[in-house]
Sequence to fold (130 residues):
Amino acid sequence: MLVESDKSNREKGFTLLEVLIAISIFSIGILAVGTMQISAIKGNASARTHTEAATWAADRVERLMALPYTHADLAQGNHNAPNEGIYAISWTVTDDTPITNTKTVAVIVTWNARGANRSVSMQHVIPQIL
Fold:
């Protein structure tokens, strides 16, 4: 019986190898979580800029809708607004499209994100109220 109690005393703890393997697995998991966080932060920043651009486009469409039908900003052709931070706002007005006595306004907001040009566009038809 004495031999069995000596054996059970030796098997009560972890070996150094088992501890090293556990620490290695834990470290790999922590590094994966860190990489995931970096990707999430980049994704959130990209979504924020897209949302801001869409808001600028919607704002410009609303401003143009509030103007009289004959206003200079609603004349046929290309128009530009002053830049809003990193965003460049432009719009194109096409007369009598899709039907007569209407104007189609296409607003485009562009910006540069990490070396690539990005854009958001919106279209709206403005009728002439007779």
